[in-house]
Structures are given as C-alpha cells and as structure tokens.
C-alpha cells in the first residue's frame, strides 16, 4: 500500500504570547464556559482593562485544546473541541477606518484569496458556511454598526461559526452574550505591576517598605492593566513613593471623561496623561506624530514623517527607544524586519494632542508622501532579487498604504496621487493575490472627477486605467477590462504617451488570450513588445507579455517557438533575480515538455512553478500549474493522485473567478486529465479521490504537489494524448 502525504490544515493565526497572563484565572475559566454555550460572546470594558489580552488567552486555550485533540488522535465528533475543528482566527480591526475595508480585513485574517468580482461578504459567507471555527474580533469600536451587521449575517449563514469579540461596548446582535470585564482585583493588580516592573528592570525588588506603596498605587489606578503597565515602566527610574507623588499632583489636572463617567474611565485618562506629562518635550512630540501611522511602522518611516526643526532626525532613534522603555511603543519582529507599534489607546491619546496642535493635516500628508515613495521603490525593486522581500514588505505595510490612499482621496486636488499609488501597486494586486482589493482602490480613484488644472497628471490616470484593465481581465470581467483599456489606449495616443499605450495594447492582448482569440492575442502581444522595445521598457510586465505571446503560440501548436521565447525569459529572470514572471515561463516550458513526452522534465518545471506561485500567493498561476501537473501525473500512470490534484484545484478556481477564464485552450489539460483518470478509476473511484483533493488546504496541496513520484515506484513516461496541437479542445467531454 502506498503511503499518502501527510495532510496539513491551517488551524489559525493567533500571535504568540510575549508576556505572562496574570490575574485573570477566574475570568478565563468563566469565559471558556460561556464560549461552550454561546455563538457570540463580547468582552466589554473600559479601554486598557485587558479585553484583548483576555480574548487572546481564551482563544489560545481553545487552540491548545484542538492541538491536544490532534495529538491524541481525536477527530471530529470525538471531543467537545470539534466545534472549533477548523481552528481559531484573529481579526484585528483597530486600524480599519473605512467600512468598505471591513470585509477585506476579515477575509485577510482568515487567509482567503479571491480574484473574482464577487463581494467579499459573499466570499466570507461561502468560506465559513461549511466550517467550524472560532473567530476573534478585536478593536471594532469605530465601526460598531458595520461590524455588528456583518457578524450577524455571517453567524446566520454559517452554523459552525462562533465569534469572540472584544470592545468597549456590545454589538447589539441577537443572541449575543456580554462578558463585562472589571478591573483587576488588588492581588492580581499587584502581581501584574510587580511582574512588569521586574521584566523592565530585573533589579527591581519588593520590600516591606515598598509593598504598601505599590498596593496603594494599584488602588489609585483602579487595577486597570494598561495603567499598571505604564506605571511599571516608570518604576525603572522612579521609586514607588515618587510615582505616587507625581500621580497625586496630576489627578486634578488630568482627570478627564464626561461628567458622571465611572471613576475607572478617569483613572485611565489620568494614567496616560500622567505618563504623557512625565515624558520629555521631544518624547511628547514624537508620541503625537507617531499617531498618524496605522499599525506597524519602521524607523525610516518614523524619521521621515516625524522629524523636523523641533525634532532633529538624528534624535528620533533615541526618542523611540525611550518610548519603548516606557511601554508607549512596542517593538515587534516581522517578515519585513523590526517594526514598532503603538497601543491603540495610547495612539488615540497622541492623536488628540496632534489635533490640538493643529499639525495633523501636515503629518498625514508627510505620511502619505512616505508611502508613495515606498510604493514607487517597491515597484522598481519588484524586478530584482528582492522580489519576495518586496512582497513581504507591502504585506506588512498594507495598513499604512491604505491610509495613504484614503488621504489622497480626501481632497480632489490630490486625486492624481491616489491614481498613481493605486496603479503603482499593480505588482501586489496581480502578483500577490490581492485582485479584489486592488479593484476596490482602482475603481475608487477612477470614479471621481479630477480637479481642474490636473491635465499635467494624465499619466497617473492612464496608469490606473491599464492596471484596472489588467485586474479586471484576471477577474474574468471582460467588459470592464476592455472599457478601461480602450480608454487608456485612446488617451495615450492623443497625448503621445507611448509607454501607457504599450501597456494598454499589452493588456488587450492578455484579454484576447484568456478569451481564446489566439490570433488576435498574438497580434496585440507582438505589437506591445515592439512598443516596449521602442520605449526602452524592460520589467516584469514586459517579460510577462513575452510569456503570454508564447502561450498564444503554444496553444496554436507552435511549441518550438513558444519554448524559445520562454527560455529567453527564464534566462533574463534568472539574471535579474525575478521569480514571479519566471513561474509563468516555466508553465509554458512544462506544457512543451509534456507535449514532447518528457514527463520528468515537465514535473520538475511545474514543481518550481507551484512553489513560486504559492510564495507570492498568486492563485491564478498556482491553479494553472496544478491543473497541468495533474495531467503530468496521470501520464506517469498515477490516476488516483491525478484525481486528487484535480479535486484540489476545483475550489481554487472559485477564488479566481470564471473557471479557466472560460477558455478551451487553458481548459484542455483539465479535461484530458479528467477523461484519462476517469477511464482508469471509473466514475465512482474518480469521484472519491477528487473529493479527497477538495478537502486539502492550499498549503497541503502545495506540499503534495512537491511529492517525489519515485515513492510510488518508477514513473511511467510517454507522450500524452493531449493537449493536441493547432486546435481548440472540445469542451463537451
């Protein structure tokens, strides 16, 4: 009996715990019991009381239960954890301001990639419909109504979904169970304060003299965890008595909140305001200016955005270090390097100060300018060995890029900047599985009327138009694609913009290719290559144009010429360190190798292709490669494995859009594989193996696609019966 590869399921995205969870054992146990019986539980409480920490602790307890169940060999139906069989997922909403991005953020948190024109809400509902999981939603206060409406619909349509929310108020959804979170009891508060103080300064000790002072400090701060953590940071440089004295001096001045608000609300304001007062002028200034960032940011961004005559650039690093030492900034390791993040309550306090200084608009524009430059640099570096690093960087900076786009759209005279930014990110929208969000921003920037006197910025609009045409074509929206591309080409010809005209003609050829008009595709793609050469343009787009021309040739039987074009592309890509376009060249070369009977060579090419496409989250390239790999597999004499791969590809097409673009040429490998594997296995056998494939996650599919066929014995080689040269495959099979 052959051994099948191990299935791997992604069970969630919870961050690792960086510090101990203290003082909430009783609340955690009660919350766990409530989650057993309710489908929506909302932890409520004042900002800084520990709602997020408790929610994450409860979520980790559920995740650990799932992991333990898996280690014990349990499965669905064997233990209570089956209700969360598909994992625990965290959606952080504190950085989301635009209601239109709420659904994108939830989809992103769940790891969904969808290239279709379907609303993200539909994608979310369809994904969750057959799954049993726990979704943790944190930081929804600025979008209470929109979050409540979306979660109510998802819960209604997804019987296996459970939600744990954390916010300052309940959502008001039917069936919601509120879990009010009070401040820490004195014992827990003291334990937290001392633990954080020791973490900040290992030399810190509690003595008989300082213990009552620390207990009084906990009482004065009403046991609010955020206030205690801020106080613990101050204990590095001040004695408990000094901290109490300074806090006492500022109660009258810094007590805030509405008249009649609970004392703990005023205590939190006091704690943050007191920490603000204890900062140096430079620290207060940087705190306020850093509030313009959404989520994480790096030192270079902080220096550019926040520095000025009153805060020299060479001092920013030291001031950042002081804010970290005082627990006002958090240092985090990310795939794109070291980043900093401000706790949301602290950020909002700083934002208030920035507004009061009248400097918020200027800082937001500097923030926008930095991320315009970052996007420009990333577009250039996409055609380099740093391509994967660029993808990781844009992923980390997405929140700030969204904020920059919003800033561009706020004022009509800066609309051209939004068009430029949305167009410049084409490599991320198309190359990293973000077609739907890219379409959102492109549509928004192009639907608005430019301000008068912006004719000089026509190039930005033309760029957004051809990128929109490209994105819409990949989504299978031919009408929108053709409309945008014709507008771009005609305007480019009128203005003499040869580069924009080349891109428009190129994407028209791409649209003809996926529409099965191979003659027209060859004509347009060849013309685009000539225009690119005349303009001196060479980048991933230009090479992709050559690959697409090779596809048109291969589908018409000109395999030798197609292989020559793609070998040239592969050589240039390897010289430049480009991997994304190279993967598509490998697809065409594998197609030619399979036609020539070289199944081993085709498999090697497709294995690399699958790996690269998965790295960049390019679902279009990945599913095309998997379909062709399935045909290679059945040709090797492994029909069962081919059926598994075919089944795994089916749900992926649901995220891309129209299956294989409705193309008979792109469809040929799938149909031939289905026919040959079906003949070998019989209808029932094929259906069983295809169903197995449909259960695989994308990660598990990629692992399986890279499986060495020699484990099943020597692979069988031989020239396949399809795809045949020079004709369109009959799709009625």
Polypeptide structure, described:
The protein is mostly helical and 733 residues long. The protein has 4 domains: 25-180, Rossmann fold (3-Layer(aba) Sandwich), CATH 3.40.50.300; 186-278, no CATH class; 363-589, Tetratricopeptide repeat domain (Serine Threonine Protein Phosphatase 5, Tetratricopeptide repeat, Alpha Horseshoe), CATH 1.25.40.10; 599-712, no CATH class. It contains 32 helices and 7 strands. The protein has helices at 25-37, 51-71, 102-109, 120-129, 144-157, 186-200, 210-220, 225-234, 240-254, 263-278, 281-290, 299-306, 316-325, 344-356, 360-381, 387-396, 398-410, 415-424, 426-431, 435-447, 458-474, 478-495, 498-514, 518-535, 540-555, 559-576, 580-595, 599-615, 619-635, 639-656, 664-694, 698-705, and strands spanning 40-44, 88-92, 133-138, 161-167, 177-180, 330-334, 337-341. Strand 6 (330-334) and strand 7 form a beta hairpin. It starts with 24 loop residues before the first helix and ends in a 28-residue tail after the last helix.
Main attributes of the structure:
single chain; 733 residues; mainly alpha; Rossmann fold; Serine Threonine Protein Phosphatase 5, Tetratricopeptide repeat; 4 domains; 5-stranded parallel sheet; two-stranded antiparallel ribbon; 32 helices; 7 strands; globular; disordered N terminus; disordered C terminus
Q: Could you outline the blueprint of secondary structure elements for this entry?
A:
Layout: H1 25-37, E1 40-44, H2 51-71, E2 88-92, H3 102-109, H4 120-129, E3 133-138, H5 144-157, E4 161-167, E5 177-180, H6 186-200, H7 210-220, H8 225-234, H9 240-254, H10 263-278, H11 281-290, H12 299-306, H13 316-325, E6 330-334, E7 337-341, H14 344-356, H15 360-381, H16 387-396, H17 398-410, H18 415-424, H19 426-431, H20 435-447, H21 458-474, H22 478-495, H23 498-514, H24 518-535, H25 540-555, H26 559-576, H27 580-595, H28 599-615, H29 619-635, H30 639-656, H31 664-694, H32 698-705
Parallel strand pairs: 1-4, 1-5, 2-3, 3-4
Antiparallel strand pairs: 6-7
Helix pairs in contact: 1-2, 3-4, 4-5, 6-7, 6-8, 7-9, 8-10, 9-10, 11-13, 11-14, 12-15, 15-16, 15-17, 15-18, 17-18, 18-20, 18-21, 20-21, 21-22, 21-23, 22-23, 23-24, 23-25, 24-25, 25-26, 25-27, 26-27, 27-28, 27-29, 28-29, 28-32, 29-30, 29-31, 30-31
